[in-house]
Amino acid sequence: MNKKIPTDGKPSASLNDAFGALRAADFPQAEPPRERRSADAKPSAPEKLGKVHLRLEKSGRAGKTVIVLAGPGIAALSADRREDLLKSLKRKFACGGADAENGALELQGEDVARVRFFLQMLGYAC
Q1: Dihedral sign, CA of 46, 52, 53, 56?
Q2: Which helix (H) or strand (E) holds 39?
Q3: Containing H/E element for 48?
Q4: Pairing relationship of beta strands 105-108 and 66-70 according to DSSP bridges
Q5: How far is residue 57's CA from residue 88's CA, in Å, rounded to a whole number?
Q6: What fold characterizes domain 50-125?
Q7: What is the pTM of this model?
Q8: Which of 70, 81, 110 shows the shortest CA–CA distance to 93?
């Protein structure tokens, strides 16, 4: 038969000393806490990447609103960096987008304020 567990209220030796072997084990010591940055230290400013013009367009798009990103900051990017920027914008705002033939980037939607804030965090002037 199964071994019965006593229920008379007296503690059993096996339950009291369940973690006794762990106390004696030789565990490595924890790392000391890292030093925190002082409160007056300012984070580094993002790299200045150029001026970007944002505009909303609706004309010729079957009533759909599109944010067009153009300007010297976008025109100066290489094709790979343009694709990376477009991919990060599409992922961040969960929308579609395209690299237009005229050198601009297009994002579906109309939330210009969020796009402007995101670009400023990346270092673009809007």
Answers
A1: negative
A2: none
A3: none
A4: antiparallel
A5: 21
A6: Translation Initiation Factor Eif1 (3.30.780)
A7: 0.61
A8: 110
User: Hey, where are the domains in the chain?
Assistant: 50-125
Token pair 């030796």 in the structure block, residue: 13
30-72 pLDDT, tens digit per residue, is 788 887 766 666 666 567 788 999 999 998 888 899 999 999 9
- Between helix 79-93 and helix 112-122 the angle, nearest 10°, is 130
HSE-up (13 A, CA, CB side) for residue 3? 1
For residue 55, what are its two tokens?
A: 């505009």
Count CB neighbours of 97 within 10 A: 20
DSSP letters, 12-28, are PHHHHTTTHHHHHS-PP
Classify the phi-psi angles of 110: left when phi > 0, otherwise alpha if psi is within -120 to 50, otherwise beta.
Answer: alpha
